[in-house]
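Archive transcription. Copying these from loose printouts into the bound notebook so they stop getting lost. Printout 1 of 2:
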Amino acid sequence: MQALGRVLERLRARDSAERRRLERELPETTGFSAATVREGLTLALTEFSAAALEALVERELGALGKGRLASGFDATAVVLGGGVPTPTLLALATPLLLGSPVLVRSSSHDPVTARVFASALAAEAPALAESLELVSFPSDDDAALGELLAAPCVVAFGSDETMAALGARLGPTQRFVRHGHRLSVAVLGRAAQSGPALGEAAAALARDVALWDQQGCLSPVALYVLGVERVPDALLTALVSAFEEAAQRWPRGRVSLQASARSVAERDTAELRAAAGADVRIRAGRDFTLVAEPNAEFRGSPLYRFLRVHPVASAEQLLEALATLGPHLAAVGVAGVGAELDALGPELAALGAARVCSLGTLQCPPLAWCHDQPGVLLPLARLTDIEE
């Protein structure tokens, strides 16, 4: 644990060779702008410390009690996906923490982070580094994938379709820890809908959306404005200002032709709806699109800083709208909710939200947040009761 803690501290340190390498190489491979990578890593790695790792172990394994042991599998295969780097770091560290050797296939969107982690581990603990092996093969190499999936424990990231395809290839005795499609939303309460509080909330939301260009599961794709029948024009004005400032500080990265086409199609659809008489308002800048919707119905987002803004008259209507997201709801960022959160929190948890936090902190979750599993370490562990 101490060696892995030192690895995390290396990655947190802004002046370390590993951190500089991440900031230098990730923009080219992932397509994120250099400013987005710097700010995203600074925020996310705030919680990736040796002390946080120790607290995680104590929280999950220390609570097992006398006579119950947790151990890692003989091997853990990790199939990475996406371009956001921080999930990769945790996915590699946790099996090693349990004593399980790890085979890793990096995402084509980010081949850098796993290599940097392996380099830092080799510097801190050469013997432990021998338990981590990075493998690479084409996506159509079915035989190589089959060998990787032969591990007794498989951890995978990707779409729900990818999770289903991988799960179909695993045997009944294998452990499958899946991280499929997740998304997040934001909620703006009455106390943050005017005055200085509105400006602060808008800036916080703009940062949560801008960082990682809405590509992570903690990036909000919709904002629900609580207690209104119609999205106020003043609120849209504040959002435009905040999103323009965010675009200057953290420019949007590369956008594929397919993603660009989806954004154009969604904007065109919104304009057609408005022309047909729907109360749809569009505010767009060079690097963002805001669409004020007439109701709370969830419509999805093409991402890359495309945010829908919904009015919700009551907390009950909010919960009804979010119920359609079901188990895909990763996090809910809130501002100006106040005492209503005491009632909303349990209801959001019942819907499946794994995290409820303040706007502006969505991109820096605690190391121990439970994501979509019952814990961080326990899904990767074998438990044994040794009775007296």
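Printout 2 of 2:
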Amino acid sequence: MRVLWFTSVTPPATASHLGMEHSLGPASWVESLRQALATRSGLQLAIASPSSSPLTPFTESGVSYYGIPLTQPSTQIGRVARRWRDAFVLEQESEAIEAVIHDFHPDLIHVHGTENPFGLVGSSCRVPVVISLQGLLTVYERFYFHGMTSREIASLALRPNFALGWSNIHGYWRCVRMAVRERQIMHANRWFIGRTAWDRAVLLAVNPDAMYRHCDEVLRQPFYKSAWRRETAAPRVVFCTSGTMAGKGVECLVEALGILHSAGYPDVRLRIAGIPPAGPGAEFYVARARKHGVMESIDWLGRLPAEQLLSELLGAAVFAYPSHIDNSPNALCEALLVGVPTVASYVGGIPSLIDHREDGLLYPDGDPFALAGSIRDLLDDPSRGVDIGRRARERALCRHDPDAIVARLLSIYGELTS
């Protein structure tokens, strides 16, 4: 069977071939799945992804790699103009996509994500197409600035990165247009793969005739091998993996830290990966930390590789995931896989990952008091955290079992091509 993947995540092999540095971060499902499929005979795989530099198709470890060329202006002014235009006009790269299909002659096309334009091939391609649901922008756009005041949103237009086309406002404009395209993709295709009750509900609300199949994701290998232990964790450290984009809920966690300090827990420390101590995107969260008087109790770690993330998870008493909307975030799944006692917002697909009070604690989104109370419960009762973490790891090891996932995916492929 010849299977062609389209993904917006640049595979490590492609990045190396172009002489680029690559760091997949939590968005590594494509490479992790490729590794799990590596030993399967009878499957000829090709992976196509966007490329900012010309890329001649090549083969490595039995996998064919293609680049979808993205033209980049050569001048700074041109790049700024391109970013502004991209906030309002979405490129489809249809000719390049069709050229890859023509060259590889697949029996099946698997598109990873509805955020990119690749799913539009389903409206014109005679080859069976299946779309994996990742984040769902149709809903995400409604929560893009959740947690920010009107004044904070307006202030984004006064910062230097706004004129350069880098601001969260530009990200929002682009998100709105990508959400429109996402709904076109959902209507144009019939077969979809998802992972949560939430993504199934959203898909069928948009396209009641869609055929939905469940298949979980393979995570990064280091997180399978290590289990959290209470004895080696810092008793008053809360760890969070986030990012600088709006809607991740870190402002709620920062306020919760202030509430904990005021409630007699002044030694609780927050360590946040994904947000640097300064720079574009960090100002909003830093300002909130100063407002709530907890700036000196927060470590802003920036982006971390898998090994350092694992070390942070193993060293924390609690993992907090306060996002205002998500499907099945890999950062959360990795924490559950390690077995860190976890508190997360009750949004999107997260309730499909956590059974409240059994293998994690869920709290109402945007409620810093409930979040603080949930963290306090785990800090005050370490033995309960041990039980919750153990059950979380047991469940996550089953959910993210590579062999089971590969078998399920191949079964879906067979169903589509039979």
